[in-house]
Amino acid sequence: MNAKRWTISLISIVLVCLLVIMSMNYFVDPYGYFAAQSGDEYSLDENDYLRELKAEHIKHFNDRYDAYFIGGSKGGAVLPSKLKELDGYNYYNCWVLSGNFPDYLAYAQYIVENTNAKKILLQISSSELYEFNREDYGTIYEVPAVLTGEPKIEEIITFLMKNPKTAWEDLTVKRSVYPCKETGERDLDHYYDFRNKNIENGKFYQYMMDNSDKYYKYFDKDLTDISDNATECINILKQIKQLCEENGVELQVYFASLFAGQMIQYESETFYDFMEEVVMICGPVWCFNTYNEIALCPYNFYNPSHFFFEVGDAMVDVMAGKENPVEGFGILLNRTNVGTEIEKRKKEYEKWHQYYMANGTLPYLGQDTPAYISNVYMP
Fold first, then answer.
1. Which whole number is the average pLDDT over 229-253?
2. What is the pTM assigned to this prediction?
3. Chain Cα centroid distance, residue 285
4. How would residue 292 be classed by pLDDT, with cut points 50, 70 and 90?
């Protein structure tokens, strides 16, 4: 074989290989990227590139919505149909897996500049302080080009040229799929099913306890320094606030409910300062991340990091001025009372700390408590 034929053969082999790789990535679509382009491929779930789907949904279907919910994965249990009770607006739930403030700014900016939104509801989960930017987690955590304004063609080429191993695994490994709903919220049926089947035998309670042990080490105050992240989050919140003000979009911010075990992870002077700064920037802010009985009832949460729909409903009810289901669930922080409430919080934290030192756990509540509010929804 002469040099010319060898070169042609080599080029042909390379082109065939590239064609195979691109075909696998396009037709198998292991990240759901190409399916997401229509904005209405609701078979995708959290293992897919939901950030892209949500961005494309906003792009193609924003005429359906007056308002947008933005937040991390906890926000997947906040129902748009329930949010309508706040103000009568039709909401789209734009939660993202492992949400962070750079994500929130990207979505807020796109929404404000490209839709007729009247309002943005921003949920803060506290976890945002620990990892400011999560793109290093992998492809599905990256901010899509439709939001960043980067060339779309470059993004398409990137997904066509992904390692074909992922596409092959997607072809050969069967996994359970739990698609999000059309208005953006998560499908929690399998979580309800797991809890309901394992309440009486004690397995669900044990599951929650086993997965809460990792948080108790934070009682020793050996906390990661998150002050720089907190500063960056505050700077971005200011940008979101200014963006909304300049475009006549209402911004409402609140702190989401947390399971008691996970709350311990965030108790620090940095978090208290962050909480106060949020209030100073945004005015009255509802805080459901409080020392309350709903947080102490494991059955209100499907794992130590996420709450069920009923907790989301309860937060909306309180913010809408309806009857509070449990005393102490939710405090309206303002510039006048935030300092006093933080001091109260420190005292409540110390009570939990002392209880833990004496009992090796927190004063969790069982099924027979009125605080068990997540016992309504049945899949």
1. 97
2. 0.94
3. 19
4. very high
**In the 8-state DSSP scheme, what is residue 28?**
T
3-state helix vs strand vs coil in the chain, percent to 5 = 55, 10, 35
Residue recorded with tokens 């078979």: 43
Write the CB contacts of 15 (distance below 8 Å, at least 6 apart in sequence). Answer: none
Residue 379: predicted pLDDT: 41
Which of 358, 126, 75 minimizes the C-alpha distance to 263? 126
Q: Is 8 helix (H, G, I), strand (E, B) or coil?
A: helix
| Positions of E strands within the chain | 67-71, 91-95, 119-124, 250-255, 285-287, 301-303, 306-307, 331-333
As a residue count, the chain comes to 379
Distance CA 165, CA 169 (A): 6
- Residue of 79, 302, 45 whose CA lies nearest to 191: 302
Lowest mean pLDDT among 28-42, 130-144, 311-325: 130-144
Residue 83: CB atoms within 10 A of its CB come to 27
Nearest CA among 289, 24, 312 for reference residue 185: 312
Q: Which residues pair with 255 in a beta bridge?
A: 124, 287
Residues forming beta bridges with residue 252, ordered by sequence position: 121
Choose among 291, 303, 364: nearest CA to 329.
Answer: 291
